[in-house]
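Long-time lurker. I teach an intro course on protein structure, and each term I like to show students one example going from raw sequence to a predicted 3D structure in token notation. This year I'd like something fresh instead of my usual example. Would anyone be willing to generate the tokens for the chain below so I can use it in lecture? Attribution to the forum is fine with me.
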Amino acid sequence: MKLDRHKMIVELIGKYDIETQEELARRLREAGYQVTQATVSRDIRQLKLVKASVDRGRQKYVIRQEIPAPADDKYVRVLKDSFVSMDMAQNILVIKTVSGMAMAAAAALDAFHFHEIVGCIAGDDTIMCAVRSVDQTILVMDKIRTLVE
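-- Reply from a regular --
Happy to contribute to a lecture. Here you go:
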């Protein structure tokens, strides 16, 4: 339930400019989640959401981005060119790549030094990343989406 709610929160803040916890709680309720103010506050803390400035002095919730930039953009390029899809199973992140590119994409991920990732194993077209927690898996997925878009 919490994992689904966290996924929904990430989706909602990506889709709407949500300024307050109350607005986030309302949108979650509209999506079918029964939440309290305390639950929303705890979710914001666990997902490490921060407020970012938008137009005319307004603010909205975003996921704090902690993507260390590699020395050059070749790692971003490798990741973009090889990425097909990703999914999670608890704290295991599974990334599908173009055939033959999983090892190069895993090396690119390693170059980013995401502190959430404990390690990666790559095959021909699949990477399995062990992530420290379920919540951090959601954050890593968002960071990777940012890199490949």
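Some talking points for your students: The chain has a mean pLDDT of 88. The CA atoms of residues 19 and 58 lie 8 Å apart.
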